Amino acid sequence: KDESLDLVAIAERMATVKHKIFVLSGKGGVGKSTFSAQLAFALAAKDFQVGLLDIDICGPSIPKMLGLEGQEIHQSNLGWSPVYVESNLGVMSIGFMLPNPDEAVIWRGPRKNGIIKQFLKDVYWGELDFLVVDAPPGTSDEHISIVQFLQATGIDGAIIVTTPQQVSLIDVRKEVSFCKKVGLQVLGIVENMSGLSQQVSDFKFMRVTETGEQRDVTEWVMEYMREKAPEMLDLVAFSEVFDSSGGGAAKMCSDMGVPFLGKVPLDPRLCKAAEEGRSCFDDNKCGSSAPALKRIIDKL
Ligand code: ADP
């Protein structure tokens, strides 16, 4: 009986949310939270009313990636208030509730389900165009419970983030199969860390001796370029990092009949934006990852 009352309460809360999008990954460390954070920034920049819900209970990195470390959730008579980056971008994460961010959260399934239910039932988002849900990697208790809790209110679908190599793609196949089993539409797959893309002026150049010692010769190379071909400093150098000879995510998508959304390169400037809790779309400082992300988000 309690369960059905909870579902009614969740349905009431979710009645003011137009679209719900899940961001999933098979493995950790592939850039799922980075993608969720930048997706939320991008939607908010388009003047949508956006909520970002972080249910990665054991590794909540969303507060940092949104520049909200150390913030706390407040309670009002309407419920828990999200922490706001802008008036149209609110964030909710277990990270806001932990007294010490270095403390490990060791919770078993029921406790995790309990907090997810509370997030859905007690957070007062108000009117939202989009609720982006950053899920933990894999397919565990959290995924099953959130899908169950939200099924009645409808979920638009899931975006799955992966890296190009086989070891990550194998887990994505499981993720896709999970989505099919629970009736969650796969909106598409993003191949992140797809090659390294870096502005030439950001590179360090090393001379490696026979004994393996490295000598930094960046200044010498830069001086040469500045003198002989300054336009080369603005070039973006690209190299493959992971083995994608198997065709990467694009091939897997065509095999599995799910949409391929595009590739985002490894880009130190995107990593820096995430570390500093900034949108990578704000200035022109995010190399080629920002336009790549923008192309993907515009497709949704
Ligand atoms: P996940 O949520 O999948 O565990 P994160 O989003 O936390 O992964 O990303 C792991 C680390 O890699 C973070 O430091 C993040 O800033 C960095 N990162 C993710 N994608 C990129 C990218 N395309 N270029 C550079 N750094 C990236």
Automatic annotation (TrEMBL):
<keyword id="KW-0067">ATP-binding</keyword>
<dbReference type="GO" id="GO:0005524">
    <property type="term" value="F:ATP binding"/>
</dbReference>
<comment type="similarity">
    <text>Belongs to the Mrp/NBP35 ATP-binding proteins family. NUBP1/NBP35 subfamily.</text>
</comment>
<comment type="function">
    <text>Component of the cytosolic iron-sulfur (Fe-S) protein assembly (CIA) machinery. Required for maturation of extramitochondrial Fe-S proteins. Functions as Fe-S scaffold, mediating the de novo assembly of an Fe-S cluster and its transfer to target apoproteins. Essential for embryo development.</text>
</comment>
<keyword id="KW-0479">Metal-binding</keyword>
<keyword id="KW-0004">4Fe-4S</keyword>
<feature type="binding site">
    <location>
        <begin position="26"/>
        <end position="33"/>
    </location>
    <ligand>
        <name>ATP</name>
    </ligand>
</feature>
<protein>
    <recommendedName>
        <fullName>Cytosolic Fe-S cluster assembly factor NBP35</fullName>
    </recommendedName>
</protein>
<keyword id="KW-0408">Iron</keyword>
<dbReference type="GO" id="GO:0016226">
    <property type="term" value="P:iron-sulfur cluster assembly"/>
</dbReference>
<dbReference type="GO" id="GO:0005829">
    <property type="term" value="C:cytosol"/>
</dbReference>
<dbReference type="GO" id="GO:0046872">
    <property type="term" value="F:metal ion binding"/>
</dbReference>
<keyword id="KW-0547">Nucleotide-binding</keyword>
<dbReference type="GO" id="GO:0051539">
    <property type="term" value="F:4 iron, 4 sulfur cluster binding"/>
</dbReference>
<dbReference type="GO" id="GO:0140663">
    <property type="term" value="F:ATP-dependent FeS chaperone activity"/>
</dbReference>
<keyword id="KW-0411">Iron-sulfur</keyword>
<comment type="subunit">
    <text>Homodimer and homotetramer. Predominantly homodimeric.</text>
</comment>
<keyword id="KW-0963">Cytoplasm</keyword>
